[in-house]
Amino acid sequence: MSTSRTPGVRHIRLKIVRKPAFACFLLWIGCWIIANTSIYIHRSIFAGYCTEEKSKRIFARLCHDYKQGVLTGDVCDDLCVTQTMVYKQCLYYDKGKKVIQADWNSQPVILKSKLENFSSYDRLYLLDERETRSIQDIDILLFTALEVKRALGLEVKNTTVPQLWAKQLKDKRDSYSRAELASMWSLLQQEEYVLFRLLQDLSKHVPRVMGSCGHFYVVEYLTAGHAWHHSLFSVETLVNPSWRDSSRKVLWRTINEIALSFLELIRHFENDFSHHLHLCDIKPENFAIRSDLTVVAIDVDMAFFEPKMRNILEQNCTADEDCNFFDCFSRCNTKTNKCTAERSNSNLQVICDKIFRPLFISKLSELRMYHPLQSQLRNAVLRCSELSIHGVTDKKTMEVTFLELYDLLKAWQR
Ligand SMILES: Nc1ncnc2c1ncn2[C@@H]1O[C@H](COP(=O)(O)OP(=O)(O)OP(=O)(O)O)[C@@H](O)[C@H]1O
Ligand SMILES: *[C@@H]1O[C@H](CO)[C@@H](O)[C@H](O)[C@H]1NC(C)=O
Ligand SMILES: *[C@@H]1O[C@H](CO)[C@@H](O)[C@H](O)[C@H]1NC(C)=O
Ligand SMILES: *[C@@H]1O[C@H](CO)[C@@H](O)[C@H](O)[C@H]1NC(C)=O
Ligand SMILES: [Mg+2]
Questions:
Q1: Measuring from atom 8 of ligand 3, which residue has the nearest CA?
Q2: How far apart are the C-alpha atoms of 140 and 247, rounded to whole Å?
Q3: pLDDT tens-digit profile of 340-382?
Q4: Which UniProt keywords are listed (predicted)?
Q5: What is the pTM of this model?
């Protein structure tokens, strides 16, 4: 009896011993796989991502140039002398613009510049030419107008030009210093700065420009979108704090307001300027939300007014695919082998496809609320996104689609 029992006991023991060993082995394999994939993901996502060391060095060079009298600006003192503006973190990829978050009197702000070094921008050759003589205001007006024409393809009235100059420069009577002129010139070479400045008083859908130092301009800090976030914009952080432990209803209400503000932005960019403003790089990361839930275009490097858009689109082609410029498409005329200058899709179509579709359809499944209007809205968003696939571009269909979305969002709001 006892001999026959022993193997049984042993068998059980072995089982007991083997199970945790096997579990350990699985766990070890699992950890190994997770560790490797996360290293891989980290490498591929953060390849060329900015570092704190590099960004601080950029500021150090900026302040060095400021102290040397090479450049200036209304926030240079705060950044370089009183230190009321301090580095917080950097937000850019190496190949992109330099985008740095700082705290200014404990408020977050964003500093931006296309290039890291002041010396990398073109010099204003008037400064070399007229070593001694002072530069006349009329020359400044002329040069600024030419630069705006180059950057945005717009003819500006010379009354608009003074608006482009930073506030403290605008109402000045004595002539500009070399550092002031050189700094302004480096800013004028940045299309995004010029566009933000031109639209400051005309649009709430661009960030407020709060000042500058050398080639860096300061804009308000906003809640930027993220493709991976389940609601694209961290809606939870935007919800009015008094509505905390926010119900789904409140979150949906917030998403609804954001979608309405997107529609408002579309209308505004289409109708309210002397030319239609086309957005050719539409993704959640390039938009942000202000605390009053206004949608703001924070990256306008790929935003073009109609005349410049036509220039960009009008290329040689053999097929329609040759006429795609990021999110802005036109058609190939096979007779002349030239793309049509007129854009064939619209801001609305691309926003439906790249913002509304993820916002209302693929993501947010955990937030789903069963409301009769929801399925109608989903269908309307799908139809709108598919317009570009079917090549529908006529004005009437676009208008009907816009109004359908607008009415559904408004109805839901009530
Ligand atoms: N005003 C702002 N408030 C908060 N975050 C901002 C602001 N401006 C930019 N950012 C953040 O910095 C990121 C990069 O800014 P931006 O898109 O202007 O630079 P970029 O170099 O053109 O980027 P990319 O080429 O990848 O689109 C944004 O995606 C956003 O997350
Ligand atoms: C900026 O200037 C620094 C020092 O002058 C130099 O080392 C660096 O290569 C420059 N960067 C660029 C992009 O020109
Ligand atoms: C504006 O520019 C026009 C030419 O484009 C010029 O004739 C006119 O004098 C300028 N006005 C001012 C105030 O400089
Ligand atoms: C486009 O085509 C024309 C004639 O077919 C040619 O002269 C021109 O150089 C081409 N332009 C480009 C950018 O390829
Ligand atoms: Mg961007």
A1: 158
A2: 56
A3: 999 999 999 999 999 999 988 865 555 566 677 888 999 999 9
A4: Disulfide bond, Endoplasmic reticulum, Membrane, Signal-anchor, Transmembrane, Transmembrane helix
A5: 0.85
Every domain of the chain and the residues it spans = 49-133+174-221, 235-315+345-412
For atom 24 of ligand 1, the residue with the nearest CA is 96
| CA–CA distance, 285 with 307 (Å, rounded to integer) | 26
What percent of the chain is modeled with pLDDT above 90?
57
301 Cβ closer than 6 Å to some ligand 1 atom: yes
**The pairing of beta strand 303-305 with beta strand 287-289:** unpaired
What phi and psi values does residue 300 have, to the nearest 5 degrees? -110, 25
Among all bound ligands, the one having the nearest atom to the CA of 318 is 4
pLDDT digits 0-9 by tens, 18-66 = 566 767 667 777 767 776 666 555 555 555 899 999 999 999 999 999 9
Query: How many angstroms separate the CA atoms of 229 and 174, rounded?
Result: 51
The CATH T-level fold of domain 235-315+345-412 is Transferase(Phosphotransferase); domain 1 (1.10.510)
Q: What is the pLDDT of residues 122-139, one digit of tens each?
A: 988 777 776 656 667 677
Q: Is the CB of 225 under 6 A from ligand 1?
A: no
Residue nearest to ligand 3 atom 7, measured at CA? 158
Burial letters for 68-89: b for 16+ Cβ neighbours within 10 Å, e otherwise? eebbbbebbebbbeeeebebbe
CB within 8 A of 24, min separation 6: which ones?
A: none
- Residue among 202, 177, 218, 224 nearest 69 (CA): 177
Ligand 2 mutation target, pool 50, 53, 68, 116, most atoms within 8 A of CB = 116
pLDDT digits (tens, 9 = 90+) for 281-320: 999 999 999 999 999 999 999 999 999 999 999 999 999 9
Could you give the CA distance from residue 259 to residue 206 in angstroms, rounded to a whole number? 16
Q: Of 389 and 412, which is predicted with more confidence?
A: 412
Ligand nearest to the CA of 141: 3
